[in-house]
Amino acid sequence: MDPAETTEEICRFIRDVVDKAGAQGVVVGLSGGVDSSVTAALCVRALGASRVLALLMPTSFTPKRDVEDAMDLAKSLGVEYRVIPIDDMVKAFLNALPYKQGDPSYRMPAANLRARVRMVILYYHANLMRRLVAGSGDRSELLIGYFTKYGDGAVDFLPIAHLYKTQVRELARWLGVPERIAYKPSSPQLYPGHRAVDELPADYPVLDKVLVGLFELKLKPREVAERLNVAEELVSETLRRYESTIHKRRLPPMLKPLPAL
């Protein structure tokens, strides 16, 4: 990957999407992680800081370092940012819904609720300001469905969807994103102690190579395992996640397809 060429290509894409939509700019959810930081930096390069709004939406258990990193990055980019804690909004939903605190069966529904509350906040501001919501999903996450349907997956466009996580980290350094953000371990923080490495088939340096073998080189799982010297079960699990999350990457099923011009 040539970072300069990649940056220019993505900036053209961002400008084209925003211009065709007749939008005034973009809204980005900024978490303090590498994906959202790179997305924000690219949007600023493409549109200018005045057309980018960064929203920080922490919970009571969001690490202080993440909030500080997000604020510092927003300041360095020169964009307007707003900090909107979501605990009270999530609590209002849980008070109105069946919910038993401490019951493991409610953990993921509540976790995904937090992602969907953030989506609502992003779109509220986008509608108010006639802007688009810029998503920060990368190719690694999208291929295995590692995002919340109608949560962080609900966006208007995805500037870095063609880049694997390891490529996003490389691009972050070229863009001047601080190293502590560029190489920070991925952590969705949808519940206390939430870490990506606990849920993924493998950490990204290995996972990305598996995905490249399957989707770019079109190898069979056994061939990928042999080339990378990893367990075939790991490759098969990666493929299973892709297949079981196809619904996340498509429009809902319809009896008859919509007409096209």
Share of helical residues: 40-55%
Compute the average pLDDT: 95
Q: What oligomeric arrangement do these chains adopt? A: single chain
How many domains, in number, for the residues? 2
CATH superfamily of the largest domain: HUPs
Tell me, briefly, the overall form: globular
Helical/strand content category:
alpha/beta
Report on this structure.
The structure is a single chain. By secondary structure, this protein is α/β, with parallel strands linked by helices. The chain folds into two domains: 3-189, 3-Layer(aba) Sandwich (Rossmann fold); 201-252. Helix content is 52%, strand content 6%. It has a four-stranded parallel beta sheet. The chain is globular, with a radius of gyration of 19 Å. The chain starts with a helix and ends in a 17-residue tail after the last helix.
Outline the secondary-structure elements.
Elements lengths: L2 H19 L4 E4 L4 H14 L4 E5 L7 H14 L2 E4 L3 H10 L10 H23 L2 E3 L4 H6 L20 H11 L3 H4 L21 H13 L4 H8 L3 H13 L17
Parallel strand pairs: 1-2, 1-4, 2-3
TL;DR?
The chain is an alpha/beta fold.
Comma- or semicolon-separated keywords:
2 domains, Rossmann fold, about 260 residues, alpha/beta, 11 helices, 4-stranded parallel beta sheet, globular
